[in-house]
Design brief:
2 copies of one chain form a homodimer. Chain A contains 4 helices and 7 strands. Chain A binds a DNA duplex (30 and 30 nucleotides) through helix 2 and helix 4.
Amino acid sequence: MRKSSKRKTMRLLDTIERLRAAGLRPTRQRAALAGLLGSEHRHISAESLHREAAKAGVPVSLATVYNTLHQFTEAGLLREVAISAGRSYFDTNTGDHQHFYCEESGELVDIPGNAIVVDGIPGPPKGTAIDRVDVVVRIRRN
Amino acid sequence: MRKSSKRKTMRLLDTIERLRAAGLRPTRQRAALAGLLGSEHRHISAESLHREAAKAGVPVSLATVYNTLHQFTEAGLLREVAISAGRSYFDTNTGDHQHFYCEESGELVDIPGNAIVVDGIPGPPKGTAIDRVDVVVRIRRN
DNA sequence: TCAACAGATTAGAACAATTCTAAAATGAAT
DNA sequence: ATTCATTTTAGAATTGTTCTAATCTGTTGA
């Protein structure tokens, strides 16, 4: 067995464990998608992941990609980043951080959470609690 | 002439002046929509403004509502607030401020700009400049 | 005042992103 | 192996938005 193959196998087992831990049945498709998401932090859309899966020879329906992304998000494996109407990203980095967003290219760039500080947020309206604070720094080429 | 009618007329003239000043031809529809947007600060969607116009007896096509909202935004009369895929708001308050967003109700609540402070934003990627910093404080009922 | 034309509006088609549906397939537990 | 709940799937449906080509309206200048 070659090294790369062995590594792949170990990653797969890992993935299956993580799915189980998240309370998700480790199906073929979920494991494949989790594998594609990989360990490096990335910003993906449903469409782009669907294309990637197809390219990797894992035929998954677009509906399943959407289902899976939402389940992963609920399970805390992903974070959804709202940018603009009709443009939704999923971020494999669920830790504390924010984003630059380039209006022209549509690209996201991370801002480490320890860099940015938001201060002076008033108490939330009665009967509600703060869930998360999202900062999007919109940038333009010049 | 009744008081309310006089007030209405004055507002209309005002509106027309503001449109001209923004370099927009003061058409029936633009004046009507600008009038509906009124002077109090509000958060609206294209759909909601379209419904309002219909209810007020001003038949405007949805396409015109979209066109007008975008033109007003470009002219600096409105600010667009991106909340989530498939949910875009226009804010009649173009001054410095941010928002609470209630995940459950979809409502926006203003946070005065003088309250909130964002610090420690790193220099933007090479070749780009910061256009705007958007803060969305996501809240949930409890 | 009105003719002419650029610019604006319109209904409806087209489009993009996402969700729904009902049927077929699969994983887990006997 | 059989069963059953869960998952996947293709394709239809929905939603929000933009496009298109025809029609209409402000504005300008004769």
